[in-house]
Specification:
The chain folds into 2 domains: about 140 residues, 3-Layer(bba) Sandwich (Glucose Oxidase, domain 1); about 220 residues, Class I glutamine amidotransferase (GATase) domain (Rossmann fold), CATH 3.40.50. The protein is built from 10 helices and 19 strands. The strands form 3 sheets. Strands 10-12-11-13-14-19-18-17-15-16 form a 10-stranded mixed sheet, sandwiched between helices. Strands 1-2-8-6-4-3-9 form a 7-stranded mixed barrel. The protein has a two-stranded parallel sheet with strand order 5-7. Helix 8 packs across helix 9. It is globular, with a radius of gyration of 21 Å.
Length: about 375
């Protein structure tokens, strides 16, 4: 039994062309093409708001085997612009599956292409850097498509957090659904900490990780003022992941600057970059970013190495933090900043994802570190 899919093409801004078959929605879409090295977890990747404005290339060749289910989503819908795989399996086999991946993509209007050489595409992006691309299932005129993709604004300078953030505050009470491989952070009987989480494109498993660690979580929109946050009398503030360039998110940078020193702060991913900018640091775009669940990071204090899940295209400049913060973590692949902390006020951040959904759970301890910081600062 086979399923036939219609023709589709992927054209990069440099003219590189890949021909394959459409297994998602019909139409045309433009985005920055990045590759993800995770072996599984495609549903979590599809629903990670950090991929807004991007096409995701899966380096693992076989995608779709276990279908899709309503429990493994990371946000209210997929935010990426397109999905690219080597081989797609339209006949999933898993007791949790409720529908095949291609049906889910069509329902959510996500274009997707399969049957292309994803290894060649990944090597091209690795060597040449991330490229803008256009996916089409209708128009195959290379000249016309090339004109469209080259006229589209690139990632640098784009504030995409405002496009994925929630529009009003809400409480999150759900903990991690499966037992963590590490025990929950030790806390006193009845101990709980009120945390305000800025939503720059937050993933649900991050919120669940905070709840499991002993936090009462109130999620607020990206544009919420510092005074509004402080009026909630939080024990701590969490700065979430999110898409795009951190520098244009000036409203968040200014609010974070006002919060530093007023309340304990923990930032990850985009939140890490925004905290760095709030301290007077600088950020820059990486050649092809870090996307996947196998990035080695060293804790510069303990010299221990963690295998981490990451999803970002920008990084904090190391030299720009000198005299402002202490570096705590470093990427062993390219020596980029993976974490820093302030020495005089309670604030720290990491570039990677401690919830790791999908990915390894080496960094779950960071939720406990945040709880310990709030406990110490609050005198509990």
């Amino acid at each position: 039994m086979t399923t036939k899919f219609p023709k589709a093409i992927l054209l990069l801004e440099d003219g590189t062309l890949f021909e394959g078959f459409s297994f998602g929605a019909e139409g045309e879409s433009i985005g920055e093409v990045v590759f993800n090295t995770s072996l599984s977890g495609y549903q979590e990747i599809l629903t990670d708001p950090s991929y807004k404005g991007q096409f995701v290339v899966m380096t693992y060749p076989e995608i779709g085997n276990y279908g899709v289910n309503p429990e493994d989503v990371e946000s209210r819908k997929p935010f990426l612009e397109g999905f690219i795989v080597k081989n797609y399996n339209p006949f999933p086999s898993n007791f949790r599956s409720t529908e095949p991946l291609h049906a889910y993509l069509k329902k959510n209007k996500i274009v997707a292409i399969e049957g292309i050489d994803t290894r060649a595409l990944t090597r091209h992006l690795r060597d040449q850097g991330s490229k803008m691309g256009i996916l089409s299932t209708r128009d195959f005129d290379k000249k016309r498509l090339l004109k469209k993709v080259r006229a589209t604004p690139k990632m640098v300078g784009l504030d995409l957090a405002k496009e994925v953030t929630c529009q009003k505050a809400y409480r999150w009470t759900k903990g991690v659904w499966a037992p963590s491989p590490q025990p929950s952070p030790a806390r006193g009987e009845g101990d709980h900490f009120k945390v305000v989480a800025y939503d720059f494109g937050i993933k649900q498993n991050i919120l669940s990780g905070l709840v499991t660690a002993g936090c009462e979580v109130m999620v607020v929109p990206a544009f919420t003022s510092a005074s509004e946050v402080l009026a909630l009398k939080p024990d701590g503030v969490f700065l979430s992941n999110g898409p795009g360039d951190p520098e244009p998110v000036t409203y968040a940078i200014e609010n974070i600057r006002k919060l530093v020193g007023e309340v304990p702060i923990f930032g990850i991913c985009l939140g890490h970059q925004l905290l760095g900018l709030a301290l007077g640091g600088k950020t820059y775009k990486l050649k092809f970013g870090h996307h996947g669940g196998n990035q080695p990071v060293m804790d510069l204090g303990t010299r221990k190495v963690e295998i981490t899940a990451q999803n970002h295209g920008f990084a904090v400049d190391t030299d720009s933090l000198k005299g402002k913060a202490e570096l705590t973590h470093m990427n062993l692949n390219d020596k980029t900043v993976e974490g820093f902390r302030m020495t005089k006020v309670p604030a720290f951040s990491v570039q990677y994802h401690p919830e790791a959904s999908p990915g390894p759970h080496d960094s779950h301890y960071l939720f406990g570190r945040f709880v310990s910081m709030m406990r110490e600062y609050g005198g509990r």
